[in-house]
Amino acid sequence: MDLASYADLVIELVNTQDPVQDSLRDLDSLQTLLEIRPHLSGRLTRRDLDAMRDLRGELRMIFTSAVSGRHEDAIERLNSLLIQHPIHPQLSGHDGQDWHMHLTEGGSVPDRYAAGASMGLAVYVSTHGIERLGICQAPLCAKVYFDTTANRSRRHCSDLCASRADVAAYRARRRENAEAEIGGRDCGR
């Protein structure tokens, strides 16, 4: 069983909310999120949607604490989720695959999602370190990511955000240089 693959559930859920749009706005959008993991599907209610939004907030706080250097707080929050949503391994066979392990096939959709996401994140942190949790530094982006670079240098959620940030920085430098040049000419009068 690849428990670390469950860590992707964290990224998928937390990144449904950004400063511009909440893509977890209704039951249809929750169903769309769950389509990637058929074993997590089930009948959904408004309470499930609210529980998933609450879980999203808790998971984001883990990243926020980790990025700001409050590692103990991040770990305490993660441990709290692990206690609230214990895992229950179960053999599963679906989609023509051989028997394999899944986590928590019983309970509500949010409970199953929370158990898998919490366990996956715990495995990821214990394997790679809490410093590998990141929040995109691009303006108007707040997506979370796992820093998989060898030198722990990742600062953006995607190449697109990194490129946009680079272009914005380049344009800002050009503006500053142009303003300094104009200001220097005005002083020479």
From TrEMBL:
InterPro entries: ABATE (IPR010852), ABATE_dom_sf (IPR023286), Znf_CGNR (IPR021005). Pfam families: ABATE, zf-CGNR. Residues 132-174 form the Zinc finger CGNR domain. PANTHER family: BLL6575 PROTEIN (PTHR35525). This is CGNR zinc finger domain-containing protein.
